[in-house]
Amino acid sequence: MFLEGVLIMFCTTDCYLLDQNEGDFVGREGNRIKYRNARFYDLVNRRIFKVRISDQSGPLPEEQVHVTARFSVNAGEKFCSLTFDSFEAL
Question: What is the pTM of this model?
Fold first, then answer.
C-alpha cells in the first residue's frame, strides 16, 4: 500500500510484550503532544524492538505471553518505524 509518499507494509513475528509507556509533553510551539509505545521481544531473532501504539491499534497482549503479532511498517526515505496492529495467541 502506498499512501502520501510513505510505503506501508505489514509484518508478523512471534514475540511477547515486555512493557508499554505513555505520556504527553508540551512541544516547542506550545501544543500538547501525546505518545504511547511498547517494547516487544522477538522470539525468532532474539531482539528487543520498540513500536508505536496508535489510536487505531487493537488491544495489546498481556505481558510475557507468547503471541504472533502484526505490525505495520512505515518505510520512508530516511526512516522506518513499526506500529502495533493486532495479535493472535500462539
Answer: 0.83
